[in-house]
Amino acid sequence: MTSAPRVRFAPSPTGYLHIGGARTALMNYLQARRYGGTFIVRMEDTDRVRSTQESVQAILDGLEWLGIDWDEGPGKEGPHAPYFQTQRLDTYREHSQRLLAEGKAYRCYCTRQDLEAQREAAEKAGAFYKYPGTCRELKGPPEGRREEEAVIRFKMPSTEGTVSFDDKALGVITKPYSDLDDWVMLRADGIPLYNFGCVIDDHLMDITLVARGQEHVNSTFPQLMLYMALGWKPPEFAHLPLILGPDREKLSKRKHPEADVMLHKRTGILPEALNNFIIRLGWSHGNDEVISREQMKEWFDFSGVGTTSGVWNPEKLLWLNQQWMKELPEATVAERLVPFLEAKGFQVKGDSRLVPLVHALKERSRTLEEMATTASLYFRSGVTLDEKAAAKHLTGDSLGLLRKVRDGIAALPEWTVEALDGVVKSVSESSSVGMGKVAQPVRVAITGNTTSPGIGETLLLAGRDEALRRIDAALSRGA
Hints:
The protein has 479 residues and is mainly alpha-helical. The chain has helices spanning 19-34, 53-66, 89-101, 112-124, 194-204, 217-230, 261-266, 271-279, 293-299, 314-327, 330-342, 354-361, 368-379, 387-393, 397-410, 417-431, 435-447, 455-462, 464-475, and strands at 6-9, 38-41, 105-108, 151-154, 162-167, 171-176, 184-186, 209-213, 236-240, 243-244, 310-311. The protein contains 19 helices and eleven strands.
């Protein structure tokens, strides 16, 4: 790439950041960062019912959580502001007037009923419907219609011809003029339709590359015709493969809750893992699976984007999340664990056991929620014993071994994993029994069951006072 790219992410705010949108944003962001370019966020907020302030904020919150920061856009006003289409209506009106004056667009007075009748007639004739140009040569409004009620349509060339582009992911794609109709650019209320608004904005914001989902391939052709009519050089295009749900249907929030980026934050997925997962749904770098943000910036290019739809694999996401829980600094994971423990009613901010907890649990936890559920055991008062485990490990000689451990750990001047393990080992040796015979009664007393991290870690995580209380409660069973 010879010059610094200007790329954009232009979502329609509908209440949440879609996984597909997040992938588009990430790929554009990486392209800008790799080549020293500019990443712009622009809101195509022309759906006035769904594009509320809350919907806009949901998009921004999702991008911020994923660490996809923008150079220009909402909250970062730049030279091409404003970045909301509803604040740029005069610009669209100005360009539509230019096209009208040059005879490259016209006002269309057809009503919804007119268009439906035309469509039905085409269907009955077994023909593909496209607008027949009813109003194309009108010099003024028909009787009973007013100019302010008209939409503005782009006038396709009446000559034979083709329009094509070389997609950076799909290669050369061509379409004849005859496949395109005189499409609506501007509604009667001055709201631009997608193909018009995005072209005007992309040109005025100096966008050099447009990357978006494959569902927009057909939109590219009318947009290229508009660039041609305005005498503007179009950007490059890259169309990204679809993302399918586990059922092999296009990922949508209606059918697939996982389409909502912030659902994954709530369920304990790390942003590093989700970024890693979504970038691999359509792009690859050899056999690399766990890919850091810095590696993405170094490696990513649209030439590596595939053409095959990516399929959502929840088990793969959980696997990646576990890798990142082990990869990130334990203090970072501990900080992110705090809200999940607080949601369970524990005030743990600043608790010295958080980092040791992450160290002890990261090998067996796939999400922060799973880790918090396991960690809850060490923050609550008391424990519920599994009766089968208690019947096996908290009776007879086992209670005698537990008593010796209790006395030994109570006398420790320092409560460390090494010292606690040392007490258990000493009781094992002095009693001429295996470590398991000593450790299991302690483990059941502290956790209620027979599985936990190492016994020294388990005692440390429970804390001196709580560990002794739980052991005393277990010993009382034999009293």
